[in-house]
Amino acid sequence: MRPGDGIAGRITGIGDEAAPDLTGQIDVARRLGWSALELRTVDGTALADLDTASVHALADRLHTAGLGVVCLDSRIGNWARPVTADFAADLDELDRLAVHGRVLGCRSVRIMSWPNDGLPEDAWASRAISRVRRLARRAEELGLELLHENCSGWAGAGASRTLRLLHEVDSPVLRVLFDTGNGVAHGYDSVSLLEPLLPYVAHVHVKDGLPGERPGEAVYTLPGDGAARVADCLRLLETHGYRGAYSLEPHLALLPHEGLRREGADAKGLFVRAAQRLATLPLDVPPAPGPGSVPRFRPPGVDGGLLLHLLHTPTAGPLETGPGAPHAMRAALHAYASAAARCGLDTLSLAPARAADVLREDTPARVRAAVAADPAFLAGQPSLVLRLGPELPRERTVMFNVHLDTVAGGPPPAFDGTRFTGRGAVDAKGPAVALLAGIAAAARACPAVGRDVSVLVQAVAGEEGGALGTFGTRPLVEAGHVGRVNVFCEPTGLRHLPRATAASTARVTVTGDDAVDDRPDAGHNATLLLGFLAQHLATALAPPSPGAPPATVCLAGLHTGTLHNKVHGTGSLALNLAHTCPEDGAAAEAAVTRALDEGLREFTARYRTVPLFARTAADAARITRLDWEKRGLPALGAQPAWGDALMERAGIDRWPDDAPAFTCDAIWLHGVPGTYTTVFGPGGLDTHHAHADGEFVDLTDLDRFASRVTALLIAFTTEVTSGLGGGTGVASGRVGGAGLASGLGGGTGVASGPASAGGAALASGSVGGAVAASGPVGGAGVASGPASAGGAAPASGPVGGAGVASGPAGGAGVASGPASAGSEVPASGPALAEGAAAACGPGPVPGTDASPAEGADLDPGSGRAEGAAPPAADPAPSADPASAAVPAAGPASSASAAPAAGSVPADALPAGALRATAPATPPDTDPAPVRDAAPDTATAAVSGAVPGMTPATPIRTEKAGTV
User: How many beta carbons lie within 10 A of that of residue 257, not counting itself?
Assistant: First the structure.
């Protein structure tokens, strides 16, 4: 979600503030149209005290209602547990919530930092920090995230203490839960506390209130009616990139730490009113600030804690494990959706496929049988669709597909600091987590990602277990969740594979009579018959046999029995045939049928005169049956050359043409017009032990994959924004350089040279119109036409400098990049936050012969663009060296894409991402001090208080006990 889009879709709340019982909590969430709840107590029982059966029942009811869980509210370090209390209770609660969280689909745990119990200040601080450090180390092992609230406890009432806690604990799993209203009772200004903590905020509680009659008291109100400056806090969070949930904790009818529920109060009604008020607060979020302001929120790179949580969550489906095994796919998808939301991705759907879409002839037989036998089979294996940005045409959309189901078995998950082990580490939970990091980095580096280009993510079930995507990926593709470029995240060693085989599975079944060992001739010997057929099929179907099909034949399992004193009359033989196109699949199926008939005739001819096997030979054709467990599946064939070129420009190597492909869900993109589909991911199926004991993935593998996702999205976005709809870019060269222009959506971009050598004129055409710009003496004139509502912010170049603006369809990118005379400032790409003016992509601009980074040399190891050619004329001195203009984004090499020098903050991309040398930005300003003085408590009665809750009958809270 972008600034200004509103927060209504991200509001949730602590359910027990509306109702003590789960039914009431779900009812309120549904009335408000929420997609999640925050959990603290259910029927008066703390979440950690629920037994396993109760948690499973709780999860079933929530997920059936379409509700996820955004946070688990613990009692760790809260008002009831002073810093001198037994720490074992906190550690035990953390362990229990880790188990519950895997069932509920949530890894975020609210903690506090223990109120004092008579200790000196230094001892209180030391003990609190030591305890949180131990909690964090345990949380790292469990895949949890600790959210420290600014509430009761040592670090809760001051930003400097919270920052010290974060610094000394030094753990990626420790983040901040900011409560807007706790300062009302604690006596500090919420905005002053929030500002220095902005980069660390991962969750927000919303309440509002007025100071009570005595210090430490508060009278709680609807959001916006009190003194907590709720709108200011939310505006600050949105402006600086916060994209998490806003969880309502209004305290209008409940004060949990005092055990107070106001008698006669309409708790649900008050809660609904507070939620409605919160959703309509006027925020008027301004544009994102530039360098030197309060630091922007930065989601983590590859979130190792999320990956550990997913590895601990069992997602092997019933086709793998059989009925009755633990299976928490819904919980895993809810956890993934919550993490994606923090990166700005919205949830479009989280639902299972319909039986009518699954029960088809080309669906594997075992899937059809499972759906027919168990109505809950599909319900327990939903799929998730996420989107970054608005709904856009397919031509402006990239789709990534990941599967969170796994094969069965495997060792317990672990992370040793460099390597993740466990089922799904490389196939494909690890790639799924790294994908989010790559998308988030691309959106930060190039604001057109998620604005002018939409990113879809399919997180699916049913890839493993022989389902082949028939109840996961296929229904989503057929529903239209497809991009122009489609990437299936499977282990390929970071080489993209633009093809995928399909497979047909045949089963030869013998159904005859058993016999005892004393009369072996009396029965049918299925072992002999199937063994003979296996050898015959191997000879007939494998090259260089003239009857060999154009497919890879795998003779798989043969089974009859295990007893030594019995002739087994029944058994089966399985064959798998991988093919590269539907025609080859049909030919393979025909070859198997033909070879089986030949084999049965040969068996009969060979053994009909052998008394021991005469009955088997005579009845061979009658007792043998050929069934197809799956057949008729498409294969992903050759892909268009333009997609290969795009991948090359993004710096992604191609899978060798002579190396075999493999089967995955990418087959369902076969024949979809106007698309390019490839398979791409970290690690290797063999080298990283996918589907086998010891499956692993290294953090460096995931970092590299994330950086290549970023590069691909930037490269695709550049192509889209530099030539939508066949527009024309026209530019006239300057002395010693070039003018740059791009046409968008059929418009025309026109640029004319400046009056002075060394300047540049740049323009970008809008939809249905033309924009022209001319440069002033010694500088550059820049203009951009609006494409739709929202328009563009034009810029003009000052004498001796340059201004840049671009207006792609759907919005405007604005950059200010003052430049000295002779420098060149690009157009046709949006400005990047916190950096100098830059375009967002590689290669020459349409209509020109110049490469925007002409002369640059791309370091193949880091992707860093260095050595760009200097301007033709010596630049005039600049008053501000740090603001000098930079060359356009895009490397000189066609194999990689690098953002422009100076355009991407150093921490905007994951480790290993394509970067460009950037001038130093001013350091962050010192955090604003937190007021020590309490707010004015003289005005307790105001018109904004909730009716019936006036200062005459306040719900009060002591300062040390605020929730």
Answer: 19
